[in-house]
Amino acid sequence: MIQPVVALLLLLLLIPIQEKDIYKERREEMVRKSIERRGVDDKAVLKAMRTVKRHLFVPSSQVEAAYEDHPLPIGAGQTISQPYMVAFMTEVIRPNPQMKVLEIGTGNGYQAAVLAEIVKEVYTIEIIPELGQSAAKRLKTLGYDNVQVKVGNGYHGWPEHAPFDAIVVTAAAEAVPPPLLAQLKDGGRMVIPIGSTSQTQTLTLIEKKKGKALTTKLMPVLFVPFTGGDKKE
């Protein structure tokens, strides 16, 4: 007969040891100092920013800087957006658990992960194959089963899954791509940087009402350029 103490030890051996989240306090500090203090107050967005482990979305050489409030290089001439900008753009679309969201510019998958913590479905497109494939693998490994990643030209959107309740564009376009506006549900919201790399870009909110696009300028920004254009895939 197994003694109670022995049985307890055996049980403890069977329980997987969870890795300590050594960056939890740094995420809390990032949210408190870089996001809440700057006006983002949507509870779901703040929770998502506290939850998603940004250090898992950056190259190993950038891990120690993962929770600083600035963009970081992720390879292929691309960057991961600063945490505040990710939170702000997410709040702008007014996310809720029933929404289906399209993201243009997957990058390393961080913005998609933040969205996936809040909304029902995320469809995200990345034009650079190595980034898109890496992001897809990372998101799957982290358990984001509500995210679908496609390697392709984001200019054309993802018509098979349209219409979308919201669209988040993480690269600067000179104008709103018509296919994206067409795939935005009536009453939906799109947040997109407008402008080229040679001039000031403006983060812009597009609200679609009765088929018309209502535009609101939000703030000056600096994003990597939108690539692909209207070329056929």
Automatic annotation (TrEMBL):
Pfam family name, one: PCMT
Gene Ontology molecular functions: protein-L-isoaspartate (D-aspartate) O-methyltransferase activity
Location(s), subcellular: Cytoplasm
Keyword flag tRNA processing: no
PROSITE patterns reported for this sequence: PCMT
UniProt keyword annotation of Methyltransferase present: yes
GO BP annotation list: methylation; protein repair
Enzyme class: transferase
The protein's Enzyme Commission number: 2.1.1.77
Taxonomy, superkingdom: Bacteria
Catalytic residue list: 81
GO cellular component, one term: cytoplasm
InterPro entries: PCMT, SAM-dependent_MTases_sf
Chemical reaction(s) catalysed: [protein]-L-isoaspartate + S-adenosyl-L-methionine = [protein]-L-isoaspartate alpha-methyl ester + S-adenosyl-L-homocysteine
Keywords recorded for this protein, A-Z: Cytoplasm, Methyltransferase, S-adenosyl-L-methionine, Transferase
Family: Belongs to the methyltransferase superfamily. L-isoaspartyl/D-aspartyl protein methyltransferase family.
HAMAP family in alphabetical order: PIMT
Main function: Catalyzes the methyl esterification of L-isoaspartyl residues in peptides and proteins that result from spontaneous decomposition of normal L-aspartyl and L-asparaginyl residues. It plays a role in the repair and/or degradation of damaged proteins.
Name by which UniProt lists this protein: Protein-L-isoaspartate O-methyltransferase
Gene for this chain: pcm
